[in-house]
Amino acid sequence: MPTRALSLCLCVTLAACGAADPTSTQQGLGSDGGPLPGADVGSHPTVAPVGQPAKYATTVVSFTLGDGGGYGQDQLPSIIQGPPHGGGCCYGSTDVLSLGNGGEVVLGFESEIVDGDGPDFIVFENAFEIANDPKNVFTELGEVSVSEDGVTWTTFACDPKSGPPSYGDCAGWRPVFATPDSPVDLGSSAKAGGDGFDLAAIGVKKAKFVRIRDLRSDRPAQQGMAGFDLDAVAVLHW
Q: Is the pTM of this model over 0.85?
């Protein structure tokens, strides 16, 4: 299996790619169900005991391919469903969807995300430490937004130019430790790695959709693997 480190050796020609409305491209990938029968999607999140698994994205509502991306798109939607395939501190997973520079993806969830204590969902990319140095992390950042109806969006503050640990609420700069054999545990979700997002930070109570937009780092990459590499999104409160 190739590692992301190998991708640094090759370059691609990069060009801007416009965003699209979540209803305009590659519709209906995966299931598009509503809340689970009997689920409470109001203001009170599920309180789960230690050992209870998280929930994950179920639907790709739209995918707008940016330049140099597309790795993993032939496996949609399954490649973004279920738990992440973390490589730990120093290896990036290749079980990902590469958005390409300027690309974006909109995900839907069977259970509505609601605001609870602390992070409400986690976005997993495939960032990794270079030469085992936690201060030197290979990053391809993404801007994260949420919506209740897929039309009106609220975006988390993200500053890709400031560098760690001041990226704010960008996705794509923390290594991933959770795997299918050791998935996200609601009782100790911080151990999963990835980038957590708290709806309270943007004044949102609940959301049904998550949009991730590549912020065009224009890093050299193996053809097809440019831009933000989405592994999974885990819901902690629903």
A: no
